Amino acid sequence: MAIIDVRHFAKSFSGKAIHKDVTFTVEEGECVGLVGGSGIGKSVVLRSLIGLEKSDSGEIWIDGQEISKLSERDLVEVRKKVAYVFQNGALFDSMSVYDNLAYPLREHTPLKEAQIRERIREQLDEFGLIEAIDKLPAQLSGGMQKRVGLARAMMIGPKVILYDEPTAGLDPYNTIKIQELVLRLKKKGVTSVFVTHDMPTALNVCDRFCLLANGRVMDEATVEEVKLNKGGKIEQFIAGEVGG
Question: What is the pTM of this model?
């Protein structure tokens, strides 16, 4: 079953067409890598999947619901199902790690503070971040900020995670940590879309790739097809990105 179904999505900015006819699906539990050159509009597609951008035409279906024309009020329910992991972590600078993770629980659940604390401690322990619980974002490395952002995204149990360049600017240690977390969430059945220029990481965590070019999805291929040299335009793109 397709949890995400994008049909003929089009989007322009200041009269310039970024996307003309983007169509793709993401099946339940699948991780799809959305790849393409810089400035091609990959993040625009991600933002549209939670209603942060409105399509000019086309449809976006999330878990059986068409969301492209929903009001901000109705989008709140969609955003409980779909978590967005921003490139920079997007943490609240003035809040501790604990309060950053508590925010979605306080806003969207009836949990009492003792229950919230217990859930946060469990989440941080699972993500290897328990020592950061009382720290401010500015006291964390960039890699830890991204891991905290991912931990916060998971606090209310979304069905879908949208990753926007989650390993950008990270050292090898933190890149591996992010990969491990993505794979762990995949094992739990979380569906995801992975936008990145880090093709080695994408090859490790994704099941399938969609190549964005010229305002549409130009090609699709599974990881297995790429590894068997049957990946078509996807394989050519990846080879160029990783110097292979």
Answer: 0.90
Cβ pair 7, 203 in contact under 8 A: no
Residue 64: is it exposed, middle or buried by C-beta count within 10 angstroms (0-12/13-18/19+)?
Answer: exposed
Q: Which pLDDT score, from 0 to 100, does residue 242 have? A: 46
The vertex-77 CA angle with 152 and 133, nearest 5°, equals 15
Q: Is-contact 101 155, C-beta < 8 A?
A: yes
Residue 244 pLDDT greater than 50, yes or no: no
Q: What residue has token string 């926007």?
A: 164
Q: Please give the pLDDT value at position 235.
A: 85
**pLDDT value, residue 229:** 83
State the average pLDDT for the chain: 91
pLDDT given for residue 241 in this prediction: 56
Show the domains of the chain with their CATH numbers: 2-92+158-242 (3.40.50.300)
Dihedral sign from CA coordinates of 101, 104, 107, 110: negative
Torsion of CA 157, 28, 207, 37, to 10 degrees: -80
209 closest CA partner among 220, 197, 224: 220
Q: Could you tell me how far CA 98 lies from the centroid of its own chain?
A: 22
